[in-house]
C-alpha cells in the first residue's frame, strides 16, 4: 500500500478543518441552544478517533535535512571511542652479581633485546660480587613496590631463598640466572617455591666437564700436575665446579692439583696476577684449568716465561679468545658457555610469567650442544662464541 507523507496528511486535515468551519458558520446556533464547537475544538476531537494535526503545527522538515534523531557525520566522529592508551611497560629489576663481568654483560644485552620487544623495562643493580650489598638491593627492590619481576644472579646461593620468598609473596615473578639457589648443584631445576625459571648449566655438571677435559689433557703425561684457578673461591658456583672436577680426576691417580689461584672473573688481569703468584710455588706444571678470563691472563704470563709450549690450557666459558686459542692450537680445550642464550631465555621466561604464560622451570642451554659442550681442536668449528671473554 502506498504511504502518505506527513506533509500531505497535514494538508488534508487543514482542508477538512476549513470545510467544517464553513459548514458551522452557515448553520449558526443549534435548536437546543447549545453553542457550536470552534474549529480548533472540532479539529482536536475528530469523529474517527484519529489524532488531529493542529493548524499551528510546524512544517515538517525536508527528509534530507538532518534532525535531532538523525546523527550527522560530526556526531559519528565524536561518538567513536578514542584509541586505547598503550599499556604501561612491565618493570623488571635485574640483580646482577657484577656489571663489570663480561659474561653477564652478554646476558644483559640479550635480556634488553627481548625486553624491548615485549613492553618491558630493565633496571640493573650492581652487587659488585658483594653478597651483603646484593641482599640490601634485593630487599630495597621488594620494599619499593615498583617492580613486577626480578631476574637474580645470586651471590648468596641458598641465602637468597628468604628474599625470593618475600618477592613472590609481594606478587613479583622471579627468574634465577646463571646460579643455583638451593642445596643441589647438579641440577638446573628451581629449588625455591614460586620461582618461574632457573636458567643455567649446573655448576657441578660443568665441573665434571672440566674434569673430563683435564683427563684428556693429561692422557700422555704421568704424573700430570695441574694448576686450578678459581673465579672466586668460596662462591657456591666455583666450589661446586671444583667438586665436579675433583670427582672425575679422583679415578686417575696420576693427576694431582699442585697449586690454586683466584682470578675474580674480571678479565685477563686476574689471571695474570694469579699465574705469577702460582709460578712462585709451582714453577713447573702440565695443565692449567680456569675460567676463560683467567686463562687469557695465564697465557700471557706463560708465553713470557717460555712455558706455553709445555702447559696445556683448559678454559671454561667458550669465549672468543677461547675458541680462537683452541683453533690455533694454543689452548687444549674448553667447556662451552652460552651467556647470550642464558640472558635471552631468562627474559623470555620472565615475559611468559608476567603475561600469564607457562613457567619455564629448569633450562640448561648447553643440553643440546655437540659432545656435551666439550670443545677441542677436533670440533671447535661447530661452536660460535657468544661473548668476548
| β-strand number | 12
- N-to-C SSE series? HHHEHEHEHEEHEHEHEHEHEHEE
Radius of gyration: 42 Å
Quick check: average pLDDT?
A: 83
- Tell me the span between the first and last alpha carbons: 91 Å
Structural class: alpha/beta
What order do the strands of the largest sheet run in, or round the barrel if closed? 2-1-3-4-5-11
Number of helices: 12
Question: Could you please describe the fold and organization of this structure?
Answer:
This protein is α/β, with parallel strands linked by helices and about 400 residues long. Helix content is about 40%, strand content about 15%. The strands form two sheets. A six-stranded parallel beta sheet has the order 2-1-3-4-5-11, sandwiched between helices. Residues about 1-75 have low confidence and may be disordered. The termini are far apart. It has helices spanning about 5-25, 40-45, 75-80, 100-115, 130-145, 160-170, 205-215, 235-250, 270-280, 290-305, 320-330, 340-355, and strands spanning about 90-95, 120-125, 150, 175, 195-200, 225-230, 255-260, 285-290, 310-315, 335, 360-365, 375. The chain is built from twelve helices and twelve strands. Helix 10 links the parallel strand 8 (about 285-290) and strand 9 (about 310-315).
Amino acid at each position: 500500500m502506498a504511504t502518505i507523507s506527513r506533509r500531505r496528511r497535514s494538508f488534508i486535515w487543514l482542508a477538512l478543518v476549513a470545510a467544517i468551519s464553513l459548514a458551522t458558520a452557515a448553520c449558526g446556533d443549534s435548536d437546543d441552544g447549545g453553542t457550536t464547537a470552534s474549529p480548533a475544538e472540532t479539529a482536536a476531537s475528530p469523529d474517527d478517533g484519529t489524532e488531529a494535526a493542529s493548524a499551528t503545527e510546524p512544517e515538517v522538515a525536508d527528509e534530507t535535512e538532518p534532525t535531532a534523531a538523525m546523527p550527522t557525520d560530526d556526531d559519528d566522529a565524536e561518538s567513536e571511542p578514542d584509541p586505547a592508551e598503550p599499556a604501561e611497560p612491565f618493570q623488571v629489576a635485574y640483580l646482577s652479581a657484577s656489571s663489570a663481568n663480561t659474561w653477564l654483560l652478554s646476558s644483559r644485552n640479550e635480556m634488553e633485546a627481548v625486553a624491548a620487544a615485549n613492553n618491558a623495562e630493565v633496571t640493573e643493580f650492581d652487587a659488585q660480587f658483594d653478597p651483603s650489598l646484593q641482599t640490601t638491593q634485593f630487599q630495597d627492590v621488594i620494599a619499593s613496590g615498583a617492580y613486577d619481576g626480578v631476574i637474580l644472579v645470586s651471590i648468596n646461593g641458598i641465602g637468597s631463598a628468604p628474599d625470593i620468598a618475600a618477592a613472590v609473596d609481594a606478587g613479583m615473578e622471579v627468574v634465577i640466572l646463571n646460579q643455583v639457589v638451593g642445596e643441589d648443584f647438579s641440577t638446573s631445576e628451581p629449588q625455591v617455591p614460586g620461582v618461574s625459571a632457573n636458567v643455567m648449566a649446573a655448576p657441578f655438571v660443568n665441573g665434571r666437564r672440566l674434569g673430563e677435559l683435564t683427563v684428556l689433557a693429561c692422557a700422555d703425561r704421568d704424573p700430570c700436575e695441574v694448576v686450578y684457578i678459581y673465579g672466586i673461591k668460596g662462591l657456591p658456583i666455583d666450589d661446586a665446579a671444583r667438586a665436579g672436577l675433583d670427582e672425575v680426576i679422583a679415578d686417575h691417580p696420576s693427576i694431582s692439583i699442585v697449586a690454586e689461584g683466584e682470578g675474580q672473573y674480571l678479565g685477563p688481569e686476574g689471571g695474570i696476577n694469579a699465574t705469577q703468584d702460582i709460578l712462585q710455588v709451582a714453577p713447573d706444571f702440565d695443565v692449567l684449568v680456569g675460567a676463560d678470563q683467567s686463562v687469557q691472563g695465564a697465557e700471557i704470563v706463560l708465553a713470557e716465561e717460555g712455558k706455553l709450549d709445555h702447559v696445556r690450557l683448559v678454559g671454561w666459558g667458550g669465549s672468543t679468545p677461547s675458541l680462537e686459542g683452541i683453533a690455533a692450537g694454543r689452548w687444549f680445550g674448553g667447556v662451552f658457555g652460552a651467556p647470550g642464550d642464558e640472558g635471552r631465555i631468562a627474559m623470555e621466561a620472565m615475559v611468559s610469567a608476567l603475561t600469564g604464560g607457562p613457567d619455564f622451570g629448569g633450562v640448561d642451554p648447553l643440553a643440546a650442544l655437540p659432545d656435551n659442550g666439550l670443545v677441542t681442536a677436533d670440533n671447535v668449528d661447530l661452536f660460535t662464541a657468544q661473548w668476548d671473554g
